[in-house]
Design goal:
384 residues; Aspartate Aminotransferase, domain 2; 2 domains; 12 strands
Amino acid sequence: MSQKPFSPASLAAQAMGWIDPVTKAVVPPIHMASTYLRDEDNGYRSGRIYARADNPTFDQAESTLAALEGGAKALVFSSGMSAATACFLGLAPGDHVVAPKVMYWSLRNWLGTFATQWGLSVEFVDADRTDAIAAAVKPGKTKLVWIETPANPTWCVTDIAAAAEIAHKAGARLAVDSTVGTPVLTQPLKLGADIVMHSATKYLNGHSDIIAGALVGAADDEHWQKLRTIRAQLGTILGQTEAWLLMRGMRTLFPRVAWACRSAEALADRLATHPMVAEVLYPGLPSFAGHAVAKKQMSGGFGGMLSVRVKGGERAAIASAARVELWKRATSLGGVESLIEHRASIEGPGTPCPPDLLRLSVGVETADDLFDDLDQALRRGHNS
């Protein structure tokens, strides 16, 4: 009788059960080589030619991530931005793409500047409304629909299955930024997406000590090989040490995300009735506009990210962030340490982020300590 398949959590914890065949080490080595020996007949039967194309240190992280997402192949990149932009650089000038109004700000800015200058036609929509996506796609012309769910920093939720149906009907691919959803909570490929993108700097690594990105494809087809070629030719590869650290972080992905989800949900519940909070934005709250869709497509929790809109407006929000002690005022998310940020001042002019909003990335500290620190900061900030 065959053994039942191991759970994704177990596969991640043991990095697919990989053991170094030479030393029998349970932790893989870092391969620092930049080039590889040719065979006597000038071939490369090892499959390796030059480290700008790939490196053995990539193998374990890519195979593990592909397995966790249920994909055919994965590619690691030098940053989340390099992974995301590769999807658009694989298109041709004149192609039409649909993207969310609320999304990672750096990518939104890139789409509105470089991508349009290069010749792409970019249309931004309220992606939490499937009718808005459907109205924006142009059959035969739209080549890519890009969504982010939950979307940074208001955490609005897009129906992945519905977006996939709309994209495919128009002859387009669907790519999903699932950085916040993580493979622990959301499986975009199983819902019909063609590509999943991660800023692997965040939850996949989880220790705030590397910059990395990743793509996972539903099929190892001609388009996927084009993305691989783009990575090699642009040189947007991940360093060997960073690839090793990424795999190190992914081994604790499931317990870290589970802990963050529990704490974030507890904080959202308590902050929803806080006298200094005007609104809590969190997909796990039944009152949240996207809760029903999130409940349908997320399992095991609603993520470790939430935002609060502070009574007293921008001034009170910034003053509150200045008074935290346990939370750290810093950009990024998904690490073991809890971070707080006044997001509108980071994004600058043109941001859709409300000026009274504070973005919270919940780490692995105790929820009570995190709440107590926010409580005193909000009260002192409101009275400043």
